[in-house]
Design brief:
- The protein is α+β, with helices and mostly antiparallel strands.
- The chain is 20% helix and 29% strand.
- The strands form ten sheets. Strands 10-12-9-14-15-16-17 form a seven-stranded parallel β-sheet, with helices on both faces. The protein has a five-stranded mixed β-sheet with strand order 21-27-26-23-24, with no helix packed on it. The chain has a four-stranded antiparallel β-sheet with strand order 4-5-2-6, sandwiched between helices.
- Helix 9 (237-246) packs parallel to helix 12 and helix 12 packs across helix 13.
- The two termini are 33 Å apart.
Length: 732
Amino acid sequence: MNSRIFRLPLAVMLLAAFLLPSAFASSAPSVYGDALVPVLASADDAELLEVVILMNPRPDTQELQLYLEGVRSIEQRRALLWDEVSRTAEIAQDDILGALYADEQLGQAESIRSIAINNSISAKLTPTAIRRLADRHDVNVIEYSPDVQCLEPVETSGTPGGNQTDEIAWHVNQVGAPDVWDMGYTGEGIIVAIMDTGVNYNHVDLADHLWDGGAEFPNHGYDVYSNDNDPMDYHGHGTHVAGIVASDGTAGTQAGIAPDATIMCVKIMSDGGGADLSDVWAGVNWAVEHGAHHTTISAGWYNISNALHQGNRDTYEVARLAGLTNTKSAGNSGGSSFNTPPEQVSAPGWVPSPWHNPDQTEPGGQGGLTVVGSTNSSDNISSYSSHGPVTWENIDPWFDYVYNNGQNQGLIKPDVSAPGEDINSCSYSNINGYTIKSGTSMASPCAGGSIALIRSINPNLTPEEVDEILQTTTVDLGATGKDNVFGAGRVDVYEAALLAEASMSDVVVNLDPLYEPYVVLQNGGTLIFDAEIRNNYTTATPGQVWTEAILPNGNTYPLDVYNVTFQPGVDIVVTGVQQNVPGFAPEGEYLYVAKAGQYPGTVIDQDSFVFLKFSLGADSEGDWNSTGWDLKQNAEIATAETMPGKFALGAAYPNPFNPTTTLNVTLPDAGDLRMQVFNTLGQEVATLANGRYAGGQHSLTFDASNLTSGVYLVRAQFNGGQALVQKVMLMK
C-alpha cells in the first residue's frame, strides 16, 4: 500500500473521505482554450456560450493507482476510487459553483453541470461571466464546446432478416459468440451502459434484462443530455446499438453477442444526434457512479482542441482505474480527403487503450478506451472505417505517442476491428422488429458485447487484462500484427473466452464487506463481511485459508489459519463473518486480507478491503478474534448462514443525503439500543436512539439540517455489546 497515504493524519483522511490532494496534479496552461479565444472576441454580451471548465487539480492516475494497490476486487476498487474522485471534485468546485449559480440568478449562466470524473464543469455562460473566471487559480482551462452532430452517417439498407425463429445474425456467428454460449457464458451479471441516443427499453429482445434503477431511475437509466430519468430513444441509433450487445432473440433474430448482459440506458445525445464532449464525460461519470462494468459509445468529434483531448483522456484513465472497460467507434471517415491521419479517427477515440500492445513501439502511457474499426462478412475492412495513427505529441501533460509528420509511429488506431457492415439489430420504432445499419457505430457494440462475455467468465479481470485478452486473440487481418487499418485484428470472442478461462486462478477469493469503507471508533469495533472461495481444481486438494491485518506502519499482523479441502468445482461460502478490531489497535488505515493456498508460503489468490481505526481507546471489543469462518474439511460446501434475528445496521438511504437520511436497525429481541452520530473529530452531534426497543426492525431518521456538509459516523450499540458503525455523507 502507499506509504504516503499511511502517514496522513487520521482526521484528515476521514474528513476528506479518502481524498488525498497529493493524488491530483496541477498544471497551468492558458486559461482560455484555443477554440474559445476567437468566439469570445466576437460574441454578443448577452450570448450564452457553451463551455467546459477544466478545474485544478487534475486527476493524477499514477498516484490514484498507488492508492488502490492491493485492492483486487473490482467493486471495492470502484468504491474507493469514486469516493476519492467525487470528494476531490466537490472540494475543488465548491467555490466556483457558488459563483456560477449567482451568475445564473443574473441571467448570465444556465445548464450548469458538475462532472467529478475529470474535475470539470460544463455550462452556458455569457462572455462577461466567462471573463470573471479568467483570474481564478482553481481554473485550468475554459474551452468552447458547442453541440455538434456527432452521429456519423450510417447506411440503412436491405430488408431486415428478423422474425425468423431461432435465427442468429451473421455478425454474432462471425465472432464466435454461440461457441461461448455453449461454454455456459452469456454475459450474465455484466452491466453494459449504452451511451447513445437512448434505448427503446420496451423492445422485447431487451425488456427482460435491463438495469433496475429502482424508484429513482424507473426507466432503466438516465438521460444525461436532458437531465431527466427517461432515456427513451426517438432516433433509432441507440436501440440498434443496444441490440448488438444484448438482443436475446425473443422477436426472432438473435442479434446480441451477450444476450444475458444487463443493459443500462445512458442517453448522451439529443433526439437528432447532437452532443458535445462534456456529455460523454457526464455519461461515463454517471455509468461509473451507478455500477456499470462496460460502456460503449458510437459517436465522434473531429478537429477538437487540445483542452478537450485532455478532458477525454483524464475521463477514460480514471474510468479504467475504476474497473470500467470502454469501447468506441473508430469513425466513418475512411478515405476522406477532409479528415486524414493523424486526425481521421474521431475523438474521444484518440485515447490509448488500457493495454500497451508490443507492436506499439512508439512509447506512451495507458488510457482506457478500446477503439473499434468495421469489417464486413468477408473480413474485409469497411470502406468508411477510419484509419490511424493519432498522436498526443503536443497535448499537455502527456506529450507522448510522437508522430512528427509521419517520421514516428504515433499511436496505432483502431485497437481491434469487428463486424459493422449490414448489421441486423433491434428497431426503435417496432418493439418486435429489426433493422439493418452499417458503420463503425455497429462495430463498437459488437466488441463491447464480446467484452461482456469475457468479463462474465472472470469478473475480476482488470481492464488491462480484458484488453490484452481481446487484442491477443483476434483474427489477424491485413499487415502482420497491429496496424492502423484492422488494429490487432477482427475480434474472435471464442478464442478470447478460452484465454479468459485459462486466466482464472485455481482458487479465487472474494471478500464482500457490509460497508465500504469500515470506520472503527476508539474503543474498537467489528468488521462484518461475506467471503467466497471459488474452487477450480479438478481434484480435491488440501490447503489453508488464512487472514492478516496490514497495519498502518505497513507491518503484517497474522490473525487466523483454517484448514480446508478445496473440492473440484465447488464454492466455499461463508456469510456474516465477524472480525473484531480491539481498542488498543493503533489509529490509521488498515488492510484486512484473506489468502488461500498452502500456508504460509504459497498464495494462490487473495482479496482485501480497507478499514480505518480511530485513536487508541479502551479494549471494549477485546482481542483480534473472529467468528463465522466455518470452513469444514472435506465438505462440498461450507456455509455459516446469517442468523435471521441478528443485530444489524442497514445501509443509510439516501447516502449522500440532504438534509435527512433513514437508517434501519434490526434487533434480535427486546433490549437497549443506543445510536449516536459523530463528526470526523469524534464529537457527538446527534443521538438517534437511547432507550429500550422491541425486537425486530426499526427505522430511524438522521436530520442534519443544522450541520455542515461532510462525513458523519453513525454508531449503533445493542445492550452495551457489539457496536456497528457506518459512514454517511451530508452534501448541501
